[in-house]
Amino acid sequence: MIDTHQHEDRKAAYYTLGCKLNFAETSTIGKALQERGIRRVRRGELADICVVNTCSVTELADKKCRSAIRRIRKQHPGALLIVTGCYAQLSPEEVAAIEGVDLVLGAEQKLDLLKYLDEWEAGNKQQIITCRGRDIKTFSPSCSSDDRTRHFLKVQDGCDYYCTYCTIPAARGPSRNGSIDLLTEQARQVAADGGKEIVLTGVNIGDFGRSTGERLLDLLDSLDKVDGIERYRISSIEPNLLSDEIIDFVASSKRFAPHFHMPLQSGSDTVLKLMHRRYDTQLFANRVAHIKRVMPQAFIGIDVIVGSRGEKPELFDETYHFLESLPFSALHVFTYSERPGTAALKIPYVVDPKEKHRRSELLLNLSESKLTAFSQANIGQTHRLLWEQGKGQWMEGYTENYLRCATTYRAGAIGQVEDFCPMFYHEPTGLLTDNKTLPFLEQISKQE
């Protein structure tokens, strides 16, 4: 092990691409290096070590990772460049071949980065250190701490689902999780540090308990009792694992926000079967209906993939009309991307790129209209709002049901939770606001 004093005055830069889970893990890596005496680089400084935590959810994500790695190498020409994350796990040789990459760490090695840094600096110059997806076994606790108001707590990792379009099981390994006691203690620490909101992150959160024999509902109940945390959000959960019991718990809890995000992926039962999803549209519709029945003002976000293999025109039409019928709040629209080694490549029907774009635009327009209607329905209603950031003359934050709001800036308000009653919806910015802030927003819109 390298002596702490050896790292004095050394600086590290951190770059995260992809999901909130990656952000939580990067934060944990940064904290470990800081405890070793390696501080975070300041603006304008050159780093001695660069850590790049990559994503590989689509072909475009891979491209963005390669571009970022090359840019970082130019920005910090003398730094030790370490690349980890899903792209490094799935394509280690490809990553290692990028000029300037020194060390490639897979998913199992990511949060043991200090060990491999020590070995590198002791003379072991092995460039690629990874393992097969099935051999990823460790659950490494992670919680982002870069934001003084919102934290991302990793409660689960990996996935035992093998959807035909997805590489996550190979990138993240099998489903596993931390214990309720461990995760509750992390939440207590967030509260002690002044954190107000925790977002529960994972690859398949609804599968919590796979490695400890515990239940997700019991985790939620334990977290709900932690004093000091104003609210929790569940980042994303499979519809077949979001039970009515969990929905009812959120509706009656002290701290869990009326905010749900579910991956639908397709509104066609035929396509869902091709994807090997574990539910049908009826189950999904039932989940949405139950949420709205017990929490009428709940925010419901939905993931959907357009242009997947097998999605013939009439099947996309089924998806559009199904979504149109649901009282959701917003869509996250993903364009299907071919991933090497996935079973989807065996499905014969391929959607033309231009048609993918057309379908994506249709769903994005539908999402915008739904979000506008949802936002306007909340005008004149009082919400609990956490102010998260200031922007000159005004500050912004989110309500418990994930509406983005703004008001005039007040010193000391950031990080505080207050009652807020929005009176206007400013469609160009997507902000709900009061009459004091509306003129500022309209002025900026005219300038842009």
Automatic annotation (TrEMBL):
Domain of life: Bacteria
Keywords: 4Fe-4S, Cytoplasm, Iron, Iron-sulfur, Metal-binding, S-adenosyl-L-methionine, Transferase, tRNA processing
The protein's Enzyme Commission number: 2.-.-.-
Protein's name in the database: (Dimethylallyl)adenosine tRNA methylthiotransferase MiaB
Species in which this protein is naturally found: Porphyromonas crevioricanis
Sequence ranges assigned to domain MTTase N-terminal in this UniProt record: 10-122
PANTHER family listed in its UniProt record: RADICAL SAM PROTEINS (PTHR11918), THREONYLCARBAMOYLADENOSINE TRNA METHYLTHIOTRANSFERASE (PTHR11918:SF45)
Cofactor requirement: [4Fe-4S] cluster
SMART domains given in the database record: Elp3
